Amino acid sequence: MTNLASGSAVSASEYQLKRARKAALAAFLGGALEYYDFFIYATAASLVFSRIFFPAGDPTVALIASFATFGVAYVARPFGAVVFGHLGDKIGRKNTLVLTLVLMGSATFLIGVLPDFTTAGYWAPALLVVLRLMQGLSAGAETAGASALSTEEAPEGRRGFFASFAMSGISAGIVLASLAFLPVAAMSEAERLAWGWRIPFWLSVVVLVVAYLVRRSLEEPEVFEEKHDHGELVKLPFAKMFKTHPAQFFQVALMSFETVTNTFMQSFGLAYAVSVGVPASTMLWVSILGNVIAIASQPLMAWLSDRFGRRPVFIAGVLGSGAMIFVYFSVISTGNIPMIFLASTLITAGTYSMSNAIYPAWFSELFNVKVRYSGMAIGLQIGILCAGFTPLLGTALVGAEKANWGPAAWIVAASSLLAVAGAVWARETHKTPLRQLGNPVR
């Protein structure tokens, strides 16, 4: 009997590990698609869209308008968080994640077939905004859903590690997007503006198909199924979350400002570097190097948080990013290519990875399973919404004076301090059993 029981325990453990790995893979692929789509848009907004979707005129004004279309998706993200967060807490994580995946992939492909301003006039930027809003609705719930599912499927004591693969997927998506844009950057300007920029958008179909097939084969986490089978789910998770977890919501909202670092570097940083004479292809390689290393460094940082706690690793990373951003813009302004590579990699694969890898598990752990998807999705979008408009703000503050990079760095530093405040306020959760996470919800 003892051997039989032991064998059964091992079998159950292996089954749980298999489910955890599958959930992590699904999160990785979903993150890759989301940020492949978002990063090719950020790259195109920095390098191309101001030239083809808007009337000719002041290039700075056109760039600001282009970044405004980039930011409009961040306005849609909170609405996506509410709608899909509700569905995720009512009908389940799996089906909701499949829906967000298809919405994101479809919008991205359609951007690649839009007519330009010369052909369609003001219909061109209008349609661009509509599709960008679709991307935003999807992205508002993608990371939260993948993080919740991975956290709920992970073995005890390893939630940070398994949930972090959503972030490694995001790094992989940025790498894929950068690689997709390298041949575009090497084209003649006429070819790039005429048709070359469309290719990365069309290629998103490949990632979409692979991610869809994996997600369709997922199962619902047992901790969610238990509540579903016993009729314990709440009617309005969004409203219930605000009633039962108000502090956790504001903690996540503050900590989500850590995302400003990456958004600012990948959009404003690219445009700023090109404006001071650094080739766009060089900056794409800078992004590739940092994110390739981050694919591996983020699970390592998350593993450290499983051992030593979420709070110390998160705070160290956020403070490090807030300090390093001054070095980053300083070396870009001098055009020192080796130092640009070094500074960017230290942030992307180092300090930013320390905070970014931890939030999928930590934010999820702050909420009860009944409102987890809604709580994380909506709270996360507060900082991300602000992050979406920081490139526009940075462009407006820096203006045509290329040596005036200080305001851009201070935007990131201030955002980092907000994230630290949230982390100090939030409870430590890395040792709390899965079924005891969050406040009671009745």
Automatic annotation (TrEMBL):
It holds the Pfam family Sugar_tr. It is a multi-pass membrane protein. It is found in: Cell membrane. It comes from the Bacteria. GO terms for molecular function: transmembrane transporter activity. Residues 23-431 form the Major facilitator superfamily (MFS) profile domain. One of its GO terms (cellular component) is plasma membrane. SUPFAM superfamilies: MFS general substrate transporter. Its main location: membrane. The keyword Cytoplasm does not apply. Keywords: Cell membrane, Membrane, Transmembrane, Transmembrane helix, Transport. This is Predicted arabinose efflux permease, MFS family. It comes from Arthrobacter cupressi.
